[in-house]
Structures are given as C-alpha cells and as structure tokens.
Amino acid sequence: NGYIALNHKSKKIIIAFRGSRYYNDWLINLSIFPVNFIPYLQYHIDNSFNSYNCSCCLVHFGFFQAYGSIVEDIYSTTIELVKTYPDYFIEITGHSLGSSLAILTGLEFKLLGLNPLIITFGGPKSTNHKLSEFINQVFNTDALLNNLFENEILFENGGIIRIIHKGDYVPDLPPT
C-alpha cells in the first residue's frame, strides 16, 4: 500500500500511500458505511484515549479497516526512524485511497505527540463532518490558513494540505 523513505538532504521521513490499483482496493473503496473512529494505536498498543475526545466521529469502514491492517508496522518503523533521526520532519502523503490512509495515519501520529505534515491528492471523503472538524482542531488548520495568507508557512507543528482537481469526482465520494 505504500512505503517509508528517508530524504537526508531535506531531513524528512516520508510515508507515502498509493491509490487504488487492485481489485481488493476497489472493495475497500466500496465499503462506505460509517463506523466509529477509535484511535487504533492508542486502543491496541497502550489502551488509552488521553488525547482523544470526539463524540459522534465516524470514518469510512473500508478505509479504517485498511488503515488498521498496516498502521502498527508503519508506526513501529517510523518511531525507530525518529529515534535514529530525531531532527527529521515527518511528511505523510497519499493519492486517492492513499490519501485516506495518510489522513488517518497523520491524525493518529499527531494524537501520539508527533507532528506530521499531511499532503493528500485527490482524496475521497474519509470522515464525517464531526471527525473532519476534530482533525482541523487537532492540526489547528485555521492558524495554518492565516499563516498561509501572511506568507509565513510554518509546519513545525504539523499540518494538512489537501490538493484536489476541480473536475475530479473522487473528492465528492462517497455521497453524503
């Protein structure tokens, strides 16, 4: 579904997720019913929810299931890289299905104290409005937007950049 890379020149740990390619990916895309979002790593690793408080937050079942199948490996590898390269910045990116995985991974990393920059391309709707608002709050996107207009783009505390094409129908799916 993706890979983790190092860019020593720009001091980045890059986590990249691909879009839909195989039959199983399309089955994931079509599993559109919403389920409660529970931070996977906090629940499965340390069984705490100390930084999570989002009632009625829902996530696309297929994306959440795909995320759950890969996140522990991604997290353990990333933590080892952060220990080895503590001054490196984490960037998480993805296209289409991969953008949903990038958002869920980035959110959970942020809840666990990391500060990733998430950059997505052509991503579908992964969450309901409540969870989207929560993500915006966690990443303080209002302040990021204000800094953008003041030409002071600072992402030391992470952030989200969502890139879509005007004619692309995927960002409007699934319909709400």
Written description of the protein model:
α1 (23-30) crosses α3 and α3 (61-84) crosses α4 (97-111). The chain is globular, with a radius of gyration of 16 Å. β5, α4 and β6 form a beta-alpha-beta unit. It has a single domain (2-172), classed as Alpha/Beta hydrolase fold, catalytic domain (Rossmann fold, 3-Layer(aba) Sandwich), CATH 3.40.50. The strands form 2 sheets. It has a 5-stranded mixed β-sheet, with helices on one face. It starts with a strand and ends in a 13-residue tail after the last strand. The mean pLDDT is 83. The protein is α/β, with parallel strands linked by helices and 176 residues long. Helix content is 42%, strand content 20%. It has helices spanning 23-30, 40-46, 61-84, 97-111, 129-139, 141-149; strands at residues 2-7, 12-17, 34-36, 58-60, 89-95, 117-121, 159-163. The chain is built from 6 helices and 7 strands.
Q: At the fourth CATH level, what is the homologous superfamily?
A: Alpha/Beta hydrolase fold, catalytic domain
- Number of DSSP helices? 6
What integer is the average pLDDT?
83
Which fold name is given in CATH as the topology? Answer: Rossmann fold
Question: What's the CATH first level?
Answer: Alpha Beta
Shape: globular
CATH architecture designation: 3-Layer(aba) Sandwich
The chain-level structural class is: alpha/beta
Separation, N- and C-terminal Cα atoms: 26 Å
**Uncertain stretches:** none
Tally of structural domains: 1
Spell the H/E element sequence.
EEHEHEHEHEHHE
Number of DSSP E strands: 7
What amount of the residues lies in strands? 15-25%
The main sheet orders its strands as: 1-2-5-6-7
What is the C-alpha radius of gyration, as a whole number of Å?
A: 16 Å
Largest sheet features = 5 strands, mixed
Portion of residues within helices: 40-55%
